[in-house]
Design a protein that fits this description.
Blueprint (H helix, E strand, L loop, with lengths): L1 E5 L6 H12 L3 E3 H11 L2 H11 L6 H12 L8 E4 L5 H14 L5 E6 L2 H9 L1 E4 L5 E3 L5 H9 L4 E2 L6 H24 L3 E5 L4 H13 L1
Parallel strand pairs: 1-3, 1-4, 2-3, 4-8
Antiparallel strand pairs: 5-6, 5-7
Helix pairs in contact: 1-9, 2-3, 4-5
């Protein structure tokens, strides 16, 4: 399975990609996670990436191509992968096509996680990660029991730095301008499928699975 998960920030693509990758036994490749690791490692590149990410802007296509080319060349990606957060511009989509051509492995499909703008805002502003378990939670959508389970076990509910309202507004604007053309790119190549991304994680996952079978 070689696929790209597309969707606005907050559409839940990271959550679904993680579950699907675990079940299908292919790597979940999230460029956002890779960049956050570089930031945490404190390299010079990490510092540059941090200021771009904190503003909700995009790291350059050239740098992203280098990162993704290196990652897809690793052995664990040879039998498939789920890309999350890449491609994010039409240029990145063209670069990915070239890269996969060189590797001789075509992309099977791109799946769009489709969600209403208002719900996206709540998902993003309410998003938290439990510092103890790494579990993704949301102050608007998770049950009080789930939130308490984290804090009672000594965990903290961590708010991602780029999940503040100003950055979120910019990330959504950047998505509309740069990433919606990627959706059209895959639609034009007849590779696009769409999943209704509203509801519980389980419901959405079941819809995703049935979309894969279509
Ligand atoms: P994400 O976790 O996918 O929402 O990504 C967080 C941030 O990392 C984005 O807002 C961008 O600043 C940066 N980023 C992640 N993936 C890409 C990409 N493919 N191209 C450019 N910037 C990216």
């Amino acid at each position: 399975m070689r696929m790209v998960l597309l969707g606005a920030p907050g559409s839940g693509k990271g959550t679904q990609a993680k579950i699907l990758a675990g079940e299908k036994n292919v790597p979940h490749i999230s460029t956002g996670d890779m960049l956050r690791e570089a930031v945490a490692a404190g390299s010079r590149f990490g510092l540059q990436a941090k200021s771009i990410m904190d503003a909700g802007n995009l790291v350059s296509d050239e740098i992203m191509l280098g990162i993704i080319a290196e990652r897809l060349a690793q052995a664990d990606a040879s039998d498939g992968f789920i890309l999350d957060g890449f491609p994010r511009t039409k240029q990145q989509a063209l670069d990915l096509d070239d890269l996969l051509d060189q590797l001789g492995v075509p992309l099977d499909m791109a799946i769009l996680m489709d969600l209403d703008f208002e719900i996206l805002m709540k998902r993003l502003t309410g998003r938290r990660t439990c510092s103890k378990t790494g579990k993704l939670l949301n102050i608007y959508f998770s049950s009080q029991d789930e939130l308490d389970e984290c804090t009672n076990s000594g965990g903290e509910l961590i708010h991602r730095e780029d999940d503040n309202e100003e950055t979120i507004a910019n990330r959504l604007a950047v998505y509309r301008k740069n990433t919606e053309p990627v959706v059209e790119f895959y639609r034009g190549r007849d590779k696009l499928r769409s999943v209704d991304a509203e509801g519980t994680i389980d419901d959405i996952y079941q819809r995703l699975l049935s979309t894969l079978l279509q």
